[in-house]
Design brief:
Helix content is about 40%, strand content about 20%. By secondary structure, it is of the alpha/beta class. It has an eight-stranded mixed β-sheet with strand order 1-6-5-4-7-8-10-9, with helices on both faces.
């Protein structure tokens, strides 16, 4: 990914009365309502390759992540061959986070992306016009629906002693389709490997756009569709034969890994997702493939 510094149109932030570095359990629900179908009554959607009622998906996905919360990094290692760590580094480098902003990381319960952003911010000085007595100059909000994932992220932050003066690291629980943030209050929204777990991603994209300020940026990193047929066959063989077996051997349960593999195949391809960003009102929409489309990073801006 080519580094593209994040330059919001406005660097004004919501002033917080919370002390810097205080952890607040409020989290943002990302596993909520995947492009559902049906008219009238109960709508249907996908849970992996299964067809389920839309209202049941959030609970089912929540159960998956409750099972793997403590082994989330191991799960991602299985899914990506350990490459997810480098990919997340690339995501944050491309975002180019800066002090004096409000940033939200959706589906970020264990803090993987947020901790990388925090590291970037630690090397920066506070905005010159900021009065330290007024509170933090920067808000970094981790949003997730799952309490176990949030608890794991808070535990890791505490164990690692992660705190940056002037940066408020917050943990918020809610619904990705109805985010608990005011209109035009956020400078950037990121989501890494979480959008495919939302029951209705289009709603989540629309609400991400709602909370962004003018000039604010949305970035999504997600497993996507491999374009080369030879690579796709090898990737499918690894995904369906190796990943669930490793999950059973190491984590003691193959089912969560089987769901995650299947969920990737049901997710829209790169061009379709890019159009969904445009339909949500985002502009300057682009995407970059990694490893031939194993992963794609989509980017869009709110310009109105």
């Amino acid at each position: 990914l080519q580094a593209m510094p994040f330059r919001p149109a406005s660097l004004a932030v919501l002033r917080s009365t919370r002390q810097t570095g205080r952890f607040i359990l409020c989290a943002s629900s990302v596993w909520s309502r995947n492009f559902s179908s049906g008219t009238g009554g109960s709508q249907e959607t996908h849970f992996g390759f299964k067809t389920v009622r839309a209202e049941d998906k959030a609970k089912m996905v929540g159960e998956v992540f409750s099972k793997v919360a403590e082994r989330y990094d191991v799960m991602n290692d299985f899914m990506s061959g350990g490459m997810h760590r480098l990919w997340k580094d690339q995501l944050v480098a491309s975002l180019g986070p800066v002090r004096g902003t409000t940033m939200v990381d959706l589906a970020g319960g264990t803090g993987d992306v947020a901790f990388r952003i925090l590291k970037e911010l630690s090397a920066q000085r506070p905005p010159p016009d900021h009065d330290p007595q007024s509170g933090p100059d920067t808000r970094l909000i981790v949003c997730d629906i799952n309490g176990e994932m949030l608890a794991e992220g808070r535990r890791r932050a505490s164990e690692q002693g992660l705190a940056v003066g002037g940066v408020s690291l917050e943990w918020v629980q809610g619904d990705a389709e109805t985010l608990p943030f005011p209109d035009r209050s956020v400078d950037c929204v990121t989501i890494a490997f979480g959008l495919r777990n939302v029951t209705e991603p289009k709603n989540a994209l629309a609400d991400a756009k709602r909370v962004l300020k003018r000039g604010g940026r949305f970035m999504c990193m997600e497993f996507s569709q491999v374009k080369d047929s030879v690579l796709r066959q090898a990737y499918d063989a690894y995904s369906f034969n190796v990943i669930p077996a490793l999950g059973a051997a190491v984590a003691g349960d193959a089912a969560p890994y089987q769901y995650l593999v299947e969920s990737i195949r049901k997710f829209p391809d790169q061009e379709t997702l890019a159009q969904h960003l445009r339909d949500a009102g985002m502009e300057h929409v682009t995407y970059t493939d990694i490893l031939g489309g194993v992963v794609a990073v989509h980017s869009g801006f709110r310009m109105d």
